[in-house]
Design brief:
single chain, alpha/beta, Lysozyme-like, Muramoyl-pentapeptide Carboxypeptidase, domain 1, 2 domains, 6-stranded mixed beta sheet, 8 helices, 8 strands, about 30% helix, binds zinc ion
Length: about 260
């Protein structure tokens, strides 16, 4: 990224943020994290990400009308994920590229993402995962890497549309049914198996055999991304089957 030209052809221009540093251990981007801004005004959200006082940033910013700006060079460590974890890695900022999508989010009543905006997000994400060879299973929401602490980009984010564009891992969610379910307080082998599957997919969860508050948060995060019809932290049959199908269809990745 030079002062004038963005690294992605999808971005129209550079709007530099001072909020970035070195990636730890010379890491390269191997993950893509999507966010919503969660602020009422997109111009203010952009200014905040470029204000040294905020200590937050992202590599790219996508307006509601689909315009894209680059704020931080891709090789630099932007400050978007905070306290996060995935697949055993805790310094998500050092190994990821972050995209902030202007949307008022849950505080604003969770308005749908406009088509033009999603088209830009899909094109930008496709460009980034292609250039950096980022595996489909490492295109995630902030809520996936910070369950309980973060809920963006929210359960209305159209992950299937990104998948159609060749971005991210997705299977059609299993149908809701009245089968057996597990929830807070349950214990035993089925809980251990559930936690093991969530951890195998990449979620940070302790395999204790006890369905505790943390497990509930992780189940909610999983649902928000992969089974958004009901986000309640209850591991129902549809949730468990969807998780199983995702694990079974994980693309083989050449690291
Ligand atoms: Zn976020």
């Amino acid at each position: 990224m030079s002062a004038l030209s963005p690294e992605s052809p999808v971005a129209s221009k550079v709007f530099p943020s001072p909020n970035h540093g070195e990636r730890k251990d010379g890491q390269r981007p191997s993950m893509l994290i999507l966010h919503y801004t969660g602020m009422p005004d997109e111009g203010e959200a952009l200014q905040w990400l470029c204000n040294p006082v905020s200590q937050v940033s992202a590599h790219y910013f996508v307006f509601g009308d689909g315009r894209v700006l680059q704020l931080v060079p891709e090789m630099r460590r932007a400050w978007h994920a905070g306290l996060s974890s995935w697949d055993g890695e805790a310094d998500i900022n050092s190994c990821s590229i972050g995209i902030e999508i202007a949307n008022t989010g849950h505080p604003g009543g969770l308005p749908p993402y406009p088509d033009a905006q999603i088209e830009s997000v899909a094109a930008l994400a496709k460009d980034i995962v292609t250039r950096w060879r980022i595996p489909a299973t490492r295109v995630l929401g902030h809520s996936d890497v910070a369950p309980g602490r973060k809920v963006d980009p929210g359960e209305l984010f159209p992950w299937p549309r990104l998948h159609e564009a060749g971005v991210g891992h997705w299977v059609a969610p299993s149908a809701m049914s009245d089968g057996r379910f597990f929830s807070r307080g349950d214990q035993g082998m089925p809980i251990e198996a559930l936690q093991a599957m969530l951890a195998m997919y990449g979620y940070e969860v302790k395999i204790s055999g006890v369905f505790d508050e943390d497990t509930e948060k992780v189940v909610s995060a999983f649902q928000r991304h992969f089974r958004p019809e009901r986000v309640d932290g209850v591991a129902d049959a549809s949730t468990i089957m969807t998780l199983r199908n995702l694990i079974a269809t994980r693309p083989q990745t050449a690291a």
